[in-house]
Amino acid sequence: MRSNILNITEDRSQFPEKNAEGKIDVDLSSHKYLKLWQGPQHPGITGNMSLELTVLGDEVMDCETHVGYLHRGFEKLMERRKYIQCFPIVCRVAVPEPDFNEYCFASAMEELAGIEVPEMAEWLRTLTLEMSRLQSYLMWIGGQSGAFGSGIIGQWANYLRDLVLDRFEELTGGRIYHMYQLPGGVRGLLPDGFKDRMEETLQTIEEFMSDIEKVMFNNAVFKKRSVGMGYIDPSWVDKFGITGPNARAAGVAKDIRKDYPYLKYDQLDFDLVMGKDSDIYTRADVRRRDLLLSVDLIRQIFAKMPEKGEIKAPTPNVLHWKVAPGETYSRAECTRGEYGYYMVSDGTEYPRRINVRGPSYTHAVALLEKMIINTNIADVAGLMVSLHTYPPEIER
Amino acid sequence: MDFGFKHILYALLTVFIVLNYGLILQGIVRKIGARVGRRYGIRWYQPYIDIIKNYAKRSTITHGVMFYIAPVFRLTGGIGLLLFMPVIFGSEIFSNFSFAGDLVLVLYFQFFGVLGMALGAAEGGHPYSAIGVSRGLSQVTAFELPLTLGVLAIAMQYQTLNITEIVAAQQGGFLSWTLFTNPFATIAIMFSFLGAMGRSPFDVVLAPQEIPIGPPTEFHSGLLGVLQLNRAIFPAAKLILFMNLLFGGATSWPELVVKTFLIYMWSVFVGTVFPRFRVDQSVRWFLVVPLTIAIIAIILIRF
Amino acid sequence: MKEDFKKRTVITPEGKPLEIDPVKDYFSDARPKVHKPANPVIEKFANWARANSLWVLGFGTGCGAIEMRPLMTPRFDAYRYGIQWRPTPRQASVFVISGYLSVKTLKRVVRTYEQMQNPKFVVGLGSCTINGGMYWDSYNTINRLDHYLPVDVYIAGCMPRPESLLHGFEELKKIIKEGRGEGANKYAEEFDWYKANQKKVIKDWDMPDYNW
Amino acid sequence: MKSLLNNIKSRFSIKDVTEQRSNLVFIDVARESAVPLITYLRDYEGMTHLVLLTAADWIEENEFQLTYLLNNPEQKFDIGVRVRISREKATMETAHHLWEQVATYQRELKEMFGIDFPGSPGVDKPFILEGWDDLPPYRRDFDTKKYSEDTYFPRPGRESNDPAEYMKKKMYPNEK
Question: Quick one: fold of C54-201?
Answer without folding.
Answer: Rossmann fold (3.40.50)
